[in-house]
Amino acid sequence: MTKHSLFIIYLLAAFFIAGCSRYPQQIKRLQWCTMGTIAAVQSTDLASAQKLRTTAIDSFGKVEDELSAWNPESDLSTINNRAGSNTPTPVSAAFTNILKISTDFASLSDGAFNPLIGPVLNAWGFNGTTAPAAPPADADLSKALMLANTAEIRVTTSGNTPLVSLGLPGMQLDFGAVAKGYAVDIVWQKATKQGLSNLLIDLGGNLRAMGEAQPGRGGWLTGIKNPFNKNRLIAKVLLLDGEAISTSGNYERFVEIKGERCAHIIDGRTAKPVKGMAGVTVIAPDAATADALSTTLFITGVEKGEMLLEKHFTNSLALWIPDRQPAEIIATDRMKQRLQKISVPYR
Ligand code: AMP
Ligand code: MG
């Protein structure tokens, strides 16, 4: 065969492959590490993805500087260190917004969700503390829960600047359940103002969509991880323009105490790590709501969670994956209508 005829075969093959694919444009993914997790932006348009990445690196960095429980210099750490000393700390509008979302979730969930869960998390060996050899004593957990009193969070103002302080020594705010989602919303809003479109923003499993992945796709097809095998998907869902999705799981962060796995999500009513739930995924109109809601529904479980959704979050959809075999998905009716490629039984 001559070089010339080989070239024609290659050319025909290329046309054939391009013709067979409904979506010939490739999606580019740019990712980096931040806030203790992986952030990523995706688009078929590399220039848009790069622009969004620049915005996101800056915004996620600012959120980490202000809100991280791990960063001893953050505003959150300063407030925690000053707890009980009657010394208010100036904070940003973002801080007070997250505080408001968190305290709202605390009251809606009757304390299952609680942004003052810090001392309880420490008792179980999270946030840089060492896991205890045995589960903490009930008396110690009761003490830690006494510090989780949202009525002791004080918000005042000096001029236009909000000030926050905590009333009792030892109180500790923790925004780990909502800060990533909130940070995604900040970036999503900035990108919208910049006129960017057809992008997906992801911060450690908190995703928010702009437009669609490719012309004709109608959104961004997103995978939901199988909590029992992180390399596999348990289902997929098409995320529509503007929607956010968040997953809370017992498999990413946990400590082992006496051979038992203790998940990093604590029931704020009992101060004990949640048992019986492997993963919860929520689709909501914004990423802060999706993030706070997935943590809350992980704690409340299916029955109470469905009641909460019906009463306060009618625009949000959820699914639960109980921590038992054989694996199954329990989904709200509207979530069921949206799921694709489901690999386990569901109801
Ligand atoms: P997520 O992965 O969004 O579900 O958030 C889990 C994180 O939320 C944990 O690592 C803690 O920082 C924090 N957290 C744990 N339990 C609670 C709770 N009951 N209320 C609020 N935040 C919590
Ligand atoms: Mg969350």
What is the fold's blueprint, element by element?
Layout: H1 3-20, E1 28-34, E2 37-43, H2 46-67, H3 75-81, E3 89-90, H4 93-108, H5 118-123, H6 138-146, E4 153-158, E5 161-166, H7 179-193, E6 199-203, E7 206-210, E8 220-226, E9 229-239, E10 244-249, E11 254-257, E12 260-263, E13 266-267, E14 272-273, E15 277-284, H8 287-312, E16 317-322, E17 330-331, H9 333-338, E18 339-340
Antiparallel strand pairs: 1-2, 2-6, 3-5, 4-5, 6-7, 7-10, 8-9, 9-18, 10-15, 11-12, 13-14, 15-16, 16-17
Helix pairs in contact: 2-7, 4-8, 7-8
Bound molecules: adenosine monophosphate and magnesium ion (MG).
Magnesium ion binds at residues 177-178, 246, 248, 291-292, 294-295.
Provide the β-strand percentage band: 25-35%
Task: Sketch the topology as an H/E string, one letter per element.
Answer: HEEHHEHHHEEHEEEEEEEEEEHEEHE
**N-end to C-end Cα span:** 59 Å
Count of helical stretches: 9
Q: What would you report as the Rg, rounded to the nearest angstrom? A: 22 Å
- Number of beta strands: 18
Indicate the structural class: alpha+beta
The biggest sheet, with number of strands, parallel, antiparallel or mixed sense and barrel status, is: 8 strands, antiparallel
Overall geometry comes to globular
Q: How do the strands line up in the largest sheet?
A: 1-2-6-7-10-15-16-17
Summed over residues and divided by their number, the pLDDT gives a mean of 92
Helix residue percentage: 25-40%
Listed once per kind, the bound small molecules are: adenosine monophosphate, magnesium ion
Low-confidence spans: pLDDT under 50, at least 5 residues? 6-20
